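Thread: Newbie trying to understand structure tokens

Hi all, I'm a second-year student working on a class project, and my supervisor (Dr. K.) asked me to get a predicted structure for one chain before our next meeting. I've only ever worked with sequences, so writing a 3D structure as a token string is new to me. If someone could post the tokens and maybe explain what I'm looking at, I'd be very grateful. Here's the chain:
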Amino acid sequence: MKINFQRDPSVVEGEIQVEIRAQEDDGIVKNLIKYLEKFGEKSRNLIPVKTTDRIVTIKYNNLIKIEVQATNLTYYTTNEIVKTTGRLYQVLESLDDDFIQVSRHSVINLNYLESIEGGFAGNMIAILSDGLKADVSRRYLPQLERELGL
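---
Reply by user tm_fold:
Sure, no problem. This is what the structure looks like when written as tokens:
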């Protein structure tokens, strides 16, 4: 990666313009754009989850995986399971880089990933801490391998 700074007096004070040049718009470019969009935002390292009877705050480092079935979200943490309603893509936008989507219905915390094993029909299974498992679809496997440095 090559980084350059170029002074431009035509840019409005307090504003920064970033231009990304690459041969193609691949996963690295998308991750860089995502990182730059979040740069400077206040991070809390927790997710507020509204259930039927209370609001629970879940710390990122305690969250193992999130699954969705229709509009029912289930948060699996190190000490409890929290159920609510919502959309997986909205939750994924608020998470940090330790989390990765592994199927249409599941997001895992890479810090709790113990291994990846072969499953049925060509899919893989992510083995997580606390005896949890998550299906890894073929569509999301290349991105998971990149995140793991493979």
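A couple of things are worth pointing out once you decode it. Residues 27-38 form the longest helix (12 residues). The two ends are 19 Å apart (CA to CA). Feel free to ask follow-ups in this thread.
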